[in-house]
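Fold these two proteins, one after the other.
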Amino acid sequence: METLTIVIVSVVSILVTGIITYFATYKSTEKRRAVILKDAENDAELLKKEKILQAKERFIQLKADHEKNVNEKNARISQIEAKIKNELQQTQNASNELARKEKDFENTKNKVERELAALESRKNEVEKMAAGQKELLEQISNFTQEEAKNQLIELVKVDAKSEAMSIANDIIEEAKLTANKDAKKIVVQTIQRVATETALENSVTVFNIESDEVKGRIIGREGRNIRALEAATGIEIIVDDTPEAIILSGFDPVRREIARLALHQLVTDGRIHPARIEEIVTKVQKQIEEEIIEVGKRTAIDLGIHGLHPEIIRLIGKMKYRSSYGQNLLQHSREVANLAGTMAAELGLNATLARRAGLLHDIGKVPDDEPELPHAIIGMKIAERLKEKAEVINAIGAHHDEIEMTSLISPIVQVCDAISGARPGARREVVESYIKRLKEMEDLAQAHEGVIKTYAIQAGRELRVIVGSEKISDNDSELLAHDIAKKIQDEMTYPGQVKVTVIRETRAVSYAK
C-alpha cells in the first residue's frame, strides 16, 4: 500500500513538474514569437517603403522615356509635314509650268499648221512649174523622161566600168610593188585552193603467161588450185578468154602483189597443187613484209627523217603498192615531202618538220583495217596514237580541210599535195572527160559578147580568147578576162590553175595591084 502511494506521489510530482515546465516554455515561446513578429513587421514596412520608392523611380523613368519618344515622333511628324508641304509646292509649280508649256505648244502647233499649209501651196506651184519645164525639155531634146534616164544610166555604167578597171589596175600595180615584202603571207594565204580531177582507182593486176595451157594448170582439177590460191591470198583470180593473161582482182594492192609473185613462182616452178600454193603464198607474204619495212626505212633515210615509229615505217613501205588516181602513193608522198621541205626553207620555217608532214600526209590510205572515215582523219588518228608531233598531226588531218589548220606547216603540205597531184602526167584522166572539160571551158568563154574564137591549150591550163577589136576595147578586154576567169573558177573543176588570155588586135589590110 505504501509502495502504491509512493508511486502515485511520484507520478503526480512528475506531472506537476511537466506542467510547470510547459507553461514556462510556452511563455518564453510567446515572447520570442512576439519579438519575431514585431521584427517581421518592421522588415515588411521597410521592404514596402523600398518597393514603393523603386516603383516611383521606375514610373519617373518610364514617364521620361515616353515623353522622349513622343517628342521624337512629333519631330518626325513635323519633318514629314514640312516635306509634304514642299512637295505640294513643287507639284503646284510643275502644274503651273505644264500649263504654260501646253499653252506654248498649242501656239507652236497652230504656227506649224499655218506654215505647212503655206508649204503645201508652194509645193503645188513648184510641181506645176516642174511639169511645165519637163514638157519644155522633152520638146527641146526630143527625148522622153524614160529615154533620158536610160541614156544616163548607160553613160554611168561606162564611166563606172572604166573607173573600176583603172582602180583594179592601180591595185594590181601596187600589189606587184609590195609583192616581195608580203611574199610569205601571200604564199600561205592565197595558194591553198586545190581542185583535182577524179579518176578510177586501180583494183586489178594483169598476170601475163606464156601460153593459155598454163591456165588449166592454175585452175587445177575441178578448180581446186584456183580456189586454194584465192583462199590463201584473198584475191579473186579471173581466168577468161583474154589471150595469155590472167586478171587478179582485189582492192588491197599488197594482196594483189602477193598473188602475182606467188603465181609467178608457181608457174616458173611448174608444181601447182594446194599444199605447194599455201607454202609459196606464206613465203611470199614474209618476203613482201620484209620488203615493206625495208622500203619504209630507205625512204625515211633518203628524206633525212629520223625517229619514226616502226608501225609508221611499215605504213610508208605499204605505200609502194598503193596508187591514188593512177599515181603511185609512195612517189607522190616523196614528192610532197621534197616540195614541202623546199617551200618551208624558202619561208624560213622548219624544213625537216615539213618533209616529215609531207611524207606522212597520206598514211591514212594504207591502214591495216578499213574504218569508215576520210583518210586524212584516219592518218591523223594513227599519228596521234603513235605520238607524232602536234604540227605533223595537224598537217595530216587538215590537208583536205577536214579540220582547222593551226600551224604554217599545214597549208604548205596542202599546197604541195595539190602541186604533186596536178602536175602534167601525174594522174590518169579519161580521154573523154579530158576533151569534155576543154570543150566546156571553150564554150563558157565563147558565150561572152564580142568573143570570136576560143582555144584551150597547155592541157587545159591556159585559155586563149580572141575578141573583135570593134566590139571590145582595151579596158573591156581586161574586164572580160577577169569575168571569164571568175566564171571558170565558180563553175568548173580542174587541176591547178587556168590562165585566161584575151587577145585583141586591129588589122589593116591593103593590096598592091
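Now the second one:
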Amino acid sequence: MKLKGLLLTAAVAASANVMATDYYVKPGNAATGNDGSSWDKALTIWDIYQNEAVAKKVEADSKYKNGDAFFFAGGTYYPTLEAGGVPQRIYRGYIFVGGCDPTQGPVTTWPTYPSATPTIFSGDLNADGVASPGDARSLVNMRLGSKGMNTAEDRYTVSDASLKPLTFHGFEFKCAYNESEWPSSEAADAMTGWGALSVVQGWLELYNCDVHDTYAAKASGMSVYGSLYNLRDCRFYNNHAVQTGAALRVNINTDIRYSRGTVERCAFYNNTLDDRYGAAIALTAGEMYIVNSTVSGNTAYAEGAGVVANGDKNATRKLHIINSTIAGNTCNADPTELYKTDAETGEVTNPGSLVGTDLRIAADANFNMYNSIVVGRTDDGTVAYAPIVMKDAAKGEAAPLFEPRCEFENYNITGSCLPLIEADKWSYIKLGTTNSMQAANTFAALFGEQDINASADKVLVPSKTYIEGLAAQEFYPPYVADVNTYAAQLATEPLFATTGYQVPDLTVDQTGAKRNANDDADYCPGAFDAFANTTGIAGVQAQKPAAQKYMYNLQGQRVNDAYRGIVIVNGKKVVK
C-alpha cells in the first residue's frame, strides 16, 4: 500500500489551537524520569504509563495533557514485559507519531510513511517471530470510563468533554497472543485489554499503521467496545482467531456506549478464523463505514470470511460499504458436512462454504452498499459461489434504532444475486436497476490471476474491459456527479454531522489516486479505479500529503496561533 501523508481528524487538528507540548520517546524497558524535551532527554513508554497509573481520569493530576504529541524514535517497544500481560491503561487523547529518526534532530516535519526507521509495538517476548504462548496478550489499552461516550438522547455525542482520540501515526503492532477463553459476559471490564489493540468506552484512531500476526479466541487484532474509532491507510494481515473478527471486531450498543467509526483506504488480507464469522471484519453491534478499502484473501470455516454484520438479535448494526472491494475470501468447510435440509419443511440450515463467503448480513442489520464489488472465489475460477448471504430471524427489540433495510445503491457488482434470503426479508431489500448481480461475475473474470498477497499496494485491480462489457449490457458505472451527490448525503449522517468526523473523499481511490474527474466519463466500482488508473498499480500516484498545520518556534517547541515571531511550518520559516 502506498501510505499517504498524515490526515488529522477535526478533533486532533483542533488541538493545535491550544497550547500543547511535544515530547520525545525512545525504546526502553523502564521509566527514566526524563522530561522528554529532546532526544537526549527522551522518555520511554514506561514514563507515560507511570503518569497514567497515577493520574488516571483526573486531568489536573496528569503531567501530560490531551493533544500532547509524543514523537517515537524508530525501534522496537515492548508495552508489557509480562507473558500474557496487558499494558497500562491510557486515559487521555495523546498523539503518538512513529517512525522518527533522532539523527535528524528535533521533529519539525512529521515522517512520511512507510518510514525508513519504523516504530514497532511488539508482544514477541519469546522472540520467535510469531504470536505464541509466552508473548504479551495486548499492546494498546485505551479506556476512559463507563459514562464517557454519549448520552441516551444522542448516541453520537461525547458527553465527557475530556475525551479526545488517542491517535497512532505510522506504527506497527505485532505478535500479541491471548490464550484465554472468551469471557462469558461481554462487559467493559471483561473486554478491557482484549485484542492487540483494545479500546473500551474511549476513542482510538490509527493512521498508516500495520496490525499483524496476532492470536486470540475472538478479536485478536483490534477490539472496539462502546467506542469511537477511525482507521485510515492501515493494513491488517496474518491475524488469527477462533471465531468472529480476527482482524477487527466492533461490539456493544447501549444508550451510553455506542460504537461507531470509519475504515478508510485500508487493506485486510490473510486473516484466518478456525470457525465463523468475519475473518477480516466483524460488526456485532454499532455502526461502521468501510470506504475505499480492500478485503481479500481471508479465510473462515463457514460463511462471512470477509465481512460480517451479525450478532445479538437485540443489538443494532448499521454497515455501509462504499467504493470498496470485498472479493476472493474463502470458506474451507466441506459443503456436504454443512448443508442440512429438514426432511419435512425443506429448510436449509448452516449453508456454509457455498454462500456468503465474502459478506454475511444477519439479524436484521441495516446495510447499504454503494459502488462496490463483492465477488467470491473458487479453486478453478469458473464457478461463481454466491458471495453474499442474508439470513436470521427478526430481532426481538420493539423499536430498533435502525429499521432493517438492505440497499444496493448506484453501481455494484456481485458474483450472483442474493443466495439465501428468508422469505420475510425481501420486503426491505432494495436491489436497484444499475447493479450487476450475475453468476458470470467470477473472481477470475473481474481480477484475472491477481493475488492480493503478491501486490505491494494490497489492492485488486478490476478489469476495465470486463466492466466496459457490463456497461454495454446497460449496467452503467456512476458518474463523478453521482458520487459528489452521495458524499453530500453522507455528510448529513450523524457520525459526520455530529462528531466532526471527516467525510471520506469518495472521488479518491484506495491508492490515493483521483478517480476519473470527467463528469461525462464513467469510473470503476471498487477500491481501485481502473478507468482513471489505466496503467495499473505501477502507474498509481500517491496523494499529496496534507498540510501539517502545526507551528514550532526556533527551539523546536510547538506553539499556537497567538505566538508572534519566527515559526517553522512544514519545514519552512515564517514570520508571524
